Amino acid sequence: MAKLIVSDLDVKDKKVLVRVDFNVPIKDGVIGDDNRIVAALPTIKYIIENGGKAILLSHLGRVKTDDDKKELSLKPIAERLSELLAKPVTFVSENEGQKVEDAVNNMQDGDVVVLENTRFQDIDNDFGKRESKNDPKLGEYWASLGDMYVNDAFGTAHRSHASNVGIAEAMKKSGKPAAAGYLMEKEIKFLGDAVANPVHPFVTILGGAKVSDKIDVITNLIPKSDHILIGGGMAYTFLAAQGHDIGKSLFEPDKVDLAKQLLKDAAGKIVLPVDNVAATEFSNDAAREVVGDDIPDNMMGLDIGPKTVEKFKEILKDAKTVVWNGPMGAFEMSNFAEGTLEVGKSLAELTDATTIIGGGDSTAAAKQLGIAPKITHISTGGGASLQYLEGKELPGIACISDK
Ligand code: AMP
Q: How much is the average pLDDT of 101-114?
């Protein structure tokens, strides 16, 4: 069933509570990267340009003690938002109580209020972590501040917190709508719909350190994919399952049987590295050598090799839908980054395909390459995008009203 979207809402004169993802890197009050604030602008602008009042809620970092509060206040973020919107933004140094209610009641149409970090509710109270444990009273309280709710924070959609699920449930209980913001809409469209019903050929590319982190993704995507290209550290457990020597490469012995089973279930769809860039140490200074699919005893595979890159490219060139999660090697070290960068480039070259990147490392690689504008969708959530690719229902999406 299609979900209600912010653009379906008549926001005029309405108080709209919006859960945004302002969880930006911040140090001593200085924002390291404001991408997430910029990404929230379309939803906020829709509300204020259509005569609504936007009341913004977000978490920032993990708040364990009072000492964390100073570093994790949303005040600098509200200031940056005000610059980006080129209009005043009211920051309230609390997220519950009289100060909050006064600020909300004083709002005019088109105004923006930012409440303090939702995770300040995770300390100093009887319930325990009220935000992260989804205290229903907190969700009800926040819901009582507004006429409608919009969830635009995909990064926390795999969590059931008071500021996403709690508010949405309370809103719906009182007959008010809970909609998805524009960012969330995009995630649903690509990670949800495009992957559930892909245009074929559908190629899945998986990498990263461990098989154990990606088992559910592989299992979910085997039946849907035409090819599953596997690189990164996780490839070596698969190569070991096929009887290859993997030297000192990353290896999960307790996953060998599973890897064998997955290779069998995938019936030829899984494509493994045919050559590798190997070194004696996990170091950018270690001498690198291209070896085949058997790795010498004293070496470890740290990247896919050039023949593998060619093989992957050959398969990718006909793809109509591609999902990529996880690097093809230890790409943080320049000597072992080529496989990841080449895969990124071949995605960027596809002009007639839907290309989707999920996961922090592949996103970092796409940005490093400057190819981000050529990718159809780069997911904003790490854990959330992985769970979506696993075919799981995310609580932060499930709680949004159907159209
Ligand atoms: P993940 O978080 O599972 O996506 O894994 C990403 C991490 O896996 C990165 O930090 C990479 O350096 C690491 N990685 C990828 N391939 C290898 C490899 N062949 N050997 C060791 N580490 C790897």
A: 98
